[in-house]
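Structure in, sequence out. Go:
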């Protein structure tokens, strides 16, 4: 048998008297043994040449380096295309030590300790901006070391990109979950900024709101230079050029050259500002850099999503406020409705003395019959305007029925507003002799029960209405 191939060795003798002697057989056995070993050595040499060719091909085509050092640590073999990537040639490094070639890049003291203990050493190092996965082993009898390094820069970068993509997706998911929260605007915004901040290195975040002629910070998140924080607390005038662009719903990026030198000196190196508008409400979400770093597309994307979270929270707040207002507002006149009146009456009675005035519009039916219901609605709106004009801060005016209105006047009973004089102006608007009959009741003099007070005021109002009826 010959390693790597099928072979058979045969010997033949010619002649009728040919005989194999014991000596012949021993010679043939020795010859067979020699031939088998010669063929085995040839096969091994061929296999070794094949392996060498494969290794040379790998060294030429793959971004790798193969090296061997002698017992003194000097390079005796250095091969591979990775040398070219490092700007080195084989002739430059042979005979030199690893310290001489690579300087302080590798921790050779730890390497020697591991190799002396017979341990394989694996390490990831960065050389000339490339990342290499290196592996070294000790050669037998302490004759040196064998090492190989693979350029894994692309692999490391792809893994880093995958981690960044995962963090990006997780941040987007967390921001989406924050969007579903129903807390107050500052609370929802603070949670959104806390989710966003880790994705924006060396940054802090501020949500600004419009306060008259200024933009002022409502919520801040992240560490910021003290002097810059003080400047932000003072507010930014809306006359500022960048504020004008924000008012026009334009995103603004401030580079270092756009910032006042004193703020750059205090540690502000850039800003990205996004307007957030919901109805008439304007806010600004700002991200600020403590280091001179450019804003990446991923960071812009996340900041835009955070701005949407704030906008949704604003819209939800406005919607809820609108629903709450609609629940207690008369849609025709804009005054409080019966629900608001009953709620405010209970609260006012708990606070102290008050006067309840019940009113009924005179002449509404005549206006509806002669001028139409649209003019009747105009009359009701006019009455509401009159009543809103006679109450002061802390008082309330309400439409509690078709032509029925109420006033809640705080404090001890005093002079009831001159409603006749107030309603006289309506006559000039084409409503004829329209006016209102009123009756009142006071707490605590007339009682503390809401229904009793309202009923008493109603009774007095109807008596007054009867007294004012023509022919009486």
């Amino acid at each position: 048998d010959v390693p790597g191939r099928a072979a058979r060795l045969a010997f033949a003798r010619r002649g009728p008297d040919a005989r194999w002697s014991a000596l012949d057989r021993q010679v043939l056995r020795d010859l067979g043994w020699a031939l088998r070993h010669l063929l085995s050595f040839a096969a091994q040499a061929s296999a070794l040449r094949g392996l060498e060719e494969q290794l040379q091909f790998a060294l030429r085509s793959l971004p790798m380096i193969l090296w061997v050092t002698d017992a003194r640590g000097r390079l005796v073999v250095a091969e591979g295309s990775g040398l070219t990537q490092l700007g080195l040639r084989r002739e430059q490094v042979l005979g030199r030590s690893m310290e001489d070639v690579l300087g302080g890049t590798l921790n050779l003291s730890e390497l020697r300790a591991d190799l002396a203990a017979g341990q394989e050493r694996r390490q990831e190092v960065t050389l000339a901006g490339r990342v290499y996965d290196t592996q070294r082993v000790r050669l037998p009898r302490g004759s040196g070391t064998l090492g190989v390094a693979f350029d894994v820069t692309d692999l490391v970068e792809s893994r880093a990109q995958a981690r960044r993509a995962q963090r990006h997706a997780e941040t987007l998911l967390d921001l989406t979950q924050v969007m579903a929260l129903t807390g107050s605007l500052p609370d929802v915004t603070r949670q959104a900024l806390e989710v966003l901040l880790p994705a924006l290195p060396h940054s802090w975040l501020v949500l600004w709101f419009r306060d008259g002629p200024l933009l002022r910070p409502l919520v801040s998140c992240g560490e910021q230079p003290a002097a810059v924080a003080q400047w932000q607390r003072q507010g930014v005038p809306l006359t500022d050029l960048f504020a004008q662009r924000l008012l026009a719903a334009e995103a603004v990026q401030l580079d270092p050259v756009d910032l006042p030198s004193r703020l750059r000196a205090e540690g502000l190196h850039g800003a990205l500002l996004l307007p957030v508008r919901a109805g008439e409400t304007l806010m600004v979400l700002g991200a600020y850099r403590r280091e001179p770093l450019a804003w990446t597309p991923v960071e812009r994307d996340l900041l835009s999503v955070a701005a949407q979270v704030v906008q949704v929270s604003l819209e939800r707040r406005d919607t809820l406020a609108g629903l709450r207002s609609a629940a207690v507002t008369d849609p025709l006149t804009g005054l409080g409705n019966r629900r608001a009146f009953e709620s405010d009456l209970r609260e006012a009675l708990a606070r102290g003395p008050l006067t309840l005035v019940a009113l009924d519009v005179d002449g509404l039916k005549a206006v509806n019959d002669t001028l139409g219901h649209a003019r009747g609605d105009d009359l009701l709106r006019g009455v509401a305007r009159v009543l809103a004009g006679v109450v002061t801060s802390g008082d309330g005016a309400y439409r509690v029925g078709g032509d029925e209105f109420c006033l809640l006047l705080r404090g001890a009973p005093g002079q009831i507003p001159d409603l006749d004089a107030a309603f006289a102006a309506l006559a000039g608007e084409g409503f004829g002799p329209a006016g209102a009959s009123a009756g009142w009741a006071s707490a605590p003099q007339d009682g503390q029960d809401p229904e009793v007070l309202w009923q008493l005021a109603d009774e007095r109002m109807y008596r007054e209405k009867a007294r004012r009826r023509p022919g009486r």
